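Below is one protein, fold included:
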Amino acid sequence: MKLRRPADPWMHLPWIAVLLLHLLVNVVTPYGFHRDEFLYLAMGRHLELFGMDFPPFIAIAARGTLATLGGSLPAVRFLPAVAGALLVLLAALLARRFGGGRYAQLAAALAVAISPLFLRAGSLFQPVVFDALWWSFALLVLARLAEAKSHGTPADRRDWLLLGVVLGLGLLTKFSIAFIGIGLIVAILLTPLRRALLTPGPWLALGIALLIGSPGIVGQIRLGLPVLGQMRDLQAEQLERVSPLVFLAGQVEMFQPLILLALAGAFHLARSRHRPVLIACAATFLLLLWLRGKAYYIGPVYPALLAAGAVQLEAVATGRRRLGAALWRGIPLVVILGFGAIAFPLAVPILPPAATARYAGAIGVTSTTNTGEPIALPQDYADMLGWEDQVAATKRAIDSLPARDRADLVVIGTNYGRAGAHDHLGAALGLPPAVAPMGSYWFFGPGPKPGRVALIIGGEREELTPFYRSVTPVARVTGEWRVPEERDVTLWIGRDPVRSLQEIWETFRGQN
C-alpha cells in the first residue's frame, strides 16, 4: 500500500534528539535507580519465561541488558531511551499515514517529544514506554487497515499479521494491552472493517497475539492468577480516589495545551477515512473512565491523536494567504516548544532534588504519592533517592557481625525497593542476595537458609517480634527528599527465629 505523502527527512530530527537527550541525562543525572527498576532487574535475574507473576517482557529486557550492557544506570536505561525515541518517530509516521506533509510530521513528532508523560517514560526502565510503543504501533496498523477498506481493496494479510505481532508484544509487556485491544474490537465491529471477520486475517492476528503473549498467560495460570490480587490491592489503595472527574481533569493536567491539539486530532479523524482509529481511542477512553483508571492509563492513545491534530493544523493553514498560513503553522509550534521548555525540568531527572522542588513550587506544580500524600518532588524522582545509602549501611552492619553470624545470615527486605536495591547495588560489594516475603519477590522464594540470623531492612519492632525472639536495631538510614516511607528506615538484626523462613513463607502469599 502506498503512502499518501513521502517521508520527510525533518521528521527524523525530533526522535534522534530525544534519544541523544535520554542518553545524556542518564549519564549526568543526579538521581539513581528507581525502586521499580530494581524490581525489574531482579525479575531478570530470576527469569522464568512461563512462571512470572506478570508479563515477562521487562524481565527479558533486564536479563538481556545485564548480560550485554551491564548494570550501570546508563546501560539499564538504554532500551527505554530507544523506545521513547521510537515513539516520537511513530508519531511522525502516524501523521504521514493520516495524510500529513512536512509540517504535520514535524509538529506531531515535536508534540510527543516534549510531552512530560512520554519523556518521563523514556527515562525509566519500566514497561510503560514499551506499552505506549505497542499501542501506537497497533493504531498505525489499524489506520492502514482502514485506508485499505476505504479504497475498496482487501486488507493486506501482512497487516493483520503485523497487528497480531504488535498486540502479542503488548500482551508480553503489560496486561493493559487488553484496553486498546477492546478498543480495536469495537472499532472493527462498528465500521466496515467488520467484514474482515469473515476472512482469516483477524483470526490469525488473534492467534499470533495469544501465542506471543502466552508466557504471561501461562505464568498467571501456574501461579494462581496473582494479577487478580494485584488489581484488588491497586483498587483499594490507589484507584478508589479516582473519579470520572479526576480522570478527565488529569488529561488536561498531563498534556496542558497539547490537549487542544489532541481534540483537533479527534475532529480530523472523525471526518476522515481513518475514523476507526478515533473509535478505538474513544472506546478505550470510555472503558478506562468507567473502570476508574488513573489518568495516565489512557496516555498511549495520544501519539495518534496528536499526530491527527498536527494534520488538521496543516490542513487549516493550507490555502491561506502567506501571513495567515505562517500564523496557523507558527503559533502552535511556539506553544508546543514553550510548553516543552517549561515542563522539561520536571519531565526528566536533570536538576538536583532541592532545585527540582524549588522549580516545581515556582511554577505551581504540586506532587503527591500514589496514595495521595503530598511530597516535595515528583514521586518518580523521590523513588530514585537514598538507595546507595541504604546499601552502604547494610554493608557496615554485615561487616560488624561475627564470622559465624555472617555465614548464617539472611538479608530480608521489607519491600521490593529495599530488597531490589540491596540485590543490584550490593552485588558489587559482595553482599549476599536478599529475600522479601511480598509481591513478586515472594515468588523468588525464601532461599536455602532458615534465617537463624537475619538483617532486616525496614519495618517496626512490633512487626518483627512475632518472628524473632531477639530484635536489635543496628543502623538508621534517613533522607528528606525520599518518599515518606523511606525517609527513616531502621536496619535490624533478628536472632532466634520462632520458625524458619521456609516454614512461614507460605503465610505471606499475596502480600504487597
Q: What stands out?
A: Residues 322-347 form the longest helix (26 residues). The mean pLDDT is 92.
